[in-house]
Write a structure and sequence with these properties.
Blueprint lengths: L1 H12 L26 H9 L6 H7 L3 H17 L4 H14 L3 H13 L4 H9 L8 H16 L4 H8 L4 H24 L49 H6 L3 H15 L6 H14 L3 H13 L4 H9 L8 H16 L4 H8 L4 H24 L21
Helix pairs in contact: 4-10, 4-12, 5-6, 5-8, 5-10, 8-9, 8-10, 10-18, 13-14, 13-16, 13-18, 16-17, 16-18
């Protein structure tokens, strides 16, 4: 038994982000819908989100209007409308784009950063990281929090203490959300191969090694939450579950993020079993026991066997299985490790899935990686109905 537990820990622990993705070489796998072929609905969406200046990203998502209408309001929120100052949004967004090796997001976030007063030197220092000389201590802590979320899906105690001494609860939620959702968009745009529009000159800075100022800890649950949940309102989303009560402390952010979650769990093209394979696997990779428990429960309802659960825990290469489902699990690992679905994984999945389904694979993993960062960092407590669906004891950070 002891040997089995040690083997399980080894198998799960080896999958950590590598920070060396070469995603910038990915050729477009999906193209924007040509303007002459757009429906009235697609034209309306393109017009609504034209101020984002992300014409190629918007145009690509026009192939899936229901998803586009949920993605871009959230991007607008974290870049333009959140409770954070423009400078702080820029620091978090650019550091995340750098670590995720997203030229597309770097180009766009750099343009916003320049409007907020950041210079060429500032942009290079963001790539160098929080330990580069010259940072204000608070700015350095913001950058370090981005690194921690990237490698550990969790903001450390030291960073949380420093940030929360200055930020209120909505700002703390927006801090996590800016990194979390930028990570989701990086995996989406990197994997699809969205090209940078003319007029955006910035690219990922050259000559700077990709390093991260954080370590994987797998420390998660708290005896009490870091963000106390609100009292449940009558008819509240999720029936008063702790996760909804926690992040409703910032209602504007919760509305736009919740629309993406609703898409994943309801208005969706993937079979429930496939969805739950993706969601439980990213929960394991992020060490988000809340997400794992919630979706293992749903996975069991969708037909998960004990062998399925072990493959989710141990990873797609751990044991022989259905090739398609192995590729689904590998897509989650690809995105976690390198923020891009590899060519081989993409080829396997796209033989069986439509473009809309491929987008749902990406948004499922990205959306629940994002949710895991929020849940872990906010200290969201397990709900009462999760007792039978927890991590194996060796993986738990608390009893």
């Amino acid at each position: 038994m002891i040997r089995a537990v040690k083997r399980l820990l080894l198998l799960v622990a080896v999958v950590i982000p590598s920070f060396v993705s070469a995603q910038s070489g990915v050729q477009p796998r999906m193209s924007p819908v040509p303007e002459a072929q757009r429906t009235d609905e697609q034209k309306a969406i393109a017009t609504e989100f034209a101020p984002s200046e992300m014409a190629n990203a918007v145009g690509t998502l026009l192939a899936y209007p229901a998803l586009a209408r949920r993605i871009f309001p959230h991007d607008r929120y974290i870049t333009m409308e959140s409770t954070l100052a423009p400078r702080h949004r820029a620091l978090l967004g650019l550091r995340t784009a750098w670590l995720a090796r997203s030229n597309y997001l770097w180009a766009h976030r750099a343009a916003l950063a320049r409007r907020a007063g950041l210079t060429d030197a500032d942009l290079r220092r963001i790539a160098q990281g929080p330990d580069a000389p010259g940072w204000d201590p608070f700015d350095a802590t913001l950058l370090r929090a981005a690194d921690e979320l990237r490698v550990d899906a969790f903001i450390s105690d030291a960073s949380w203490k420093a940030l929360s001494a200055r930020f209120d609860i909505p700002q703390m939620i927006d801090t996590i959300d800016t990194v979390a959702e930028t990570t989701m968009y990086a995996g989406l745009f990197n994997s699809v191969g969205v090209e940078i529009e003319p007029g955006f000159a910035d690219r990922l800075p050259s000559g700077i090694p990709v390093t991260v100022s954080a370590k994987r800890t797998n420390l998660r649950a708290y005896p009490t939450p870091r963000i106390p949940p609100a009292e449940p309102a009558p008819g509240a989303r999720g029936g008063g579950a702790n996760v909804f009560r926690t992040f409703n402390r910032n209602p504007p952010a919760d509305r736009v993020r919740g629309a993406i979650n609703t898409h994943i769990t309801g208005m969706y093209t993937l079979m429930p079993r496939w969805r739950e394979l993706l969601l439980t696997r990213i929960g394991v990779l992020c060490r988000a026991e809340y997400e794992y428990a919630a979706h293992l429960r749903a996975g069991r309802q969708a037909g998960f066997t004990d062998a399925d659960v072990q493959r989710v825990l141990n990873g797609p290469k751990s044991a022989p299985g259905d090739p398609f489902e192995t590729a689904l699990l590998q897509a989650a690992d690809d995105l976690w490790e390198n923020d891009v679905v590899s060519a081989g994984t993409w080829a396997t999945l796209s033989k069986s899935l439509s473009p809309q389904q491929m987008l749902d694979v990406l948004i499922s993993v990205g959306g629940y990686r994002s949710g895991s960062m929020l849940i872990n960092s906010g200290g969201v407590q397990l709900d009462a109905n999760m007792a039978d669906f927890r991590f194996p004891p060796a993986m738990r950070s608390t009893p």
